[in-house]
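Progress note, sequence design subtask.
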């Protein structure tokens, strides 16, 4: 008798379920039958009082605390995206080097145009190795346009410098030195072109100093050029002279530490970094290097 009533009740309860749950009718019948047989006398009242109301009036779902968002596209032009950009240098470098989609690599090259030249040029040079012609040629065109702009400024200054007064010539020589140095500093020149750019940068910076260009910045520039050429002794002397003429020690001391390291004068390296740490009130511009050498306040 109990079995017959349990089967009848199971068939009825399976039909009483909400419309959205009636697809598995046979499974529902079996589930109710097992429940009723396991709890004779209490199964049916329990299902009617507790289970069915829960099926018809379920507890409201809590609002989802997260949502899926699409990956942002690489920017084609400067956009306002808050205090930090969507893609930094590392993100673009990863896309250019590793992305399988050529379209994404091309977008990365487009985005690199909006970055500081010192950060963008290594990325563009990496894109020159891309197997896809469109990516490679576009990167080349961007690099070529940057180099052409510098060369155009150099040509304009050279055409004007001979007719200028001495004070203007000093300024123009200094501007030429900066332009030639930028070719080397940004990595736009290599091989013989790099050597020529460094020679011209040093020549024009020296001429600016001879013509009375005031300030320590010209000595500081000459020191950087000499260091890039590998003339360590001359660079060290020039950097020290620039400090005497008012250059910030916080700007010059890292280069003096680099020269000492190249000469394998490691005690001098530590001394320079200790001095740098003191000059900068324990906030040096190269904290990782200072910490690596164990320099503390």
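Output:
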């Amino acid at each position: 008798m109990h079995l017959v009533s349990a089967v009848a009740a199971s068939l009825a309860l399976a039909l009483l379920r909400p419309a959205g749950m009636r697809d598995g009718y046979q499974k529902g019948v079996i589930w109710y039958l097992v429940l009723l047989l396991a709890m004779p006398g209490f199964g049916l009242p329990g299902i009617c009082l507790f289970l069915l109301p829960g099926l018809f009036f379920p507890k409201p779902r809590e609002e989802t605390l997260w949502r899926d968002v699409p990956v942002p596209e690489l920017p084609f032009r400067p956009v306002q995206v808050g205090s930090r950009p969507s893609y930094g240098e590392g993100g673009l470098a990863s896309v250019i080097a590793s992305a399988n989609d050529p379209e994404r690599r091309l977008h990365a090259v487009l985005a690199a145009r909006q970055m500081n030249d010192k950060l963008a040029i290594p990325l563009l040079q990496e894109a020159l190795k891309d197997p896809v012609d469109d990516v490679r040629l576009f990167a080349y065109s961007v690099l070529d346009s940057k180099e052409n702009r510098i060369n155009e400024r150099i040509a304009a200054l050279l055409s004007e410098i001979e007719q200028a007064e001495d004070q203007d010539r000093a300024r123009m020589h200094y501007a030429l030195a900066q332009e030639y140095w930028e070719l080397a500093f940004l990595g736009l020149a290599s091989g013989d072109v790099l050597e020529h750019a460094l020679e011209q940068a040093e020549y024009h910076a020296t001429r600016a100093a001879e013509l009375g260009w005031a300030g320590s910045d010209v000595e500081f520039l000459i020191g950087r050029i000499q260091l890039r050429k590998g003339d360590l002794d001359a660079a060290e002397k020039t950097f020290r002279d620039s400090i005497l003429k008012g250059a910030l020690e916080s700007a010059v001391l890292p280069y003096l530490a680099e020269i000492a390291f190249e000469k394998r004068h490691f005690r001098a390296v530590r001394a320079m970094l200790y001095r740098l740490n003191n000059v900068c009130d324990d906030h040096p511009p190269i904290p990782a290097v200072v910490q690596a050498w164990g320099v503390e306040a």
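Confidence is low (pLDDT under 50) at residues 76-86. Work on this subtask will continue into the next period as scheduled.
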